[in-house]
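Quick bug: DNA-binding MarR family transcriptional regulator output formatted oddly.
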Amino acid sequence: MRLLDLADARLLSRSRISRMVHSFEKRGFIERERAEDDRRGWYAILTPAGQDWWERCQSAYASNVHRHALKLLGPDTIRVVTAAARQLVSADAADRPEPVLKGAGLHEHPWSGGR
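Here's what came back:
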């Protein structure tokens, strides 16, 4: 994903996203590649190690959401919240550039994994 688009999608400043990307790059989770269409721009590309880390984080995050929030709600409330979240994701997904998962043979949004 282009760094500028990543910053915009996550409501972060360019300097903040740059520091985050640098940290993830040092850990081998992403690689930077210069944009061919605009030599000033850079892409952050998720590596296989980054994909593995992302999947582990998703599992831990889901477990924490369940433990701290969902267990407090009834089934009807969960259905309403789920429907609202799906509307938000589908409305926003059309505006997001598609990330590139390098070496994994995957080209889907990590947040839309069909779960």
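Actually, after a second look the formatting is fine. DSSP finds four helices and two strands in the chain. Closing.
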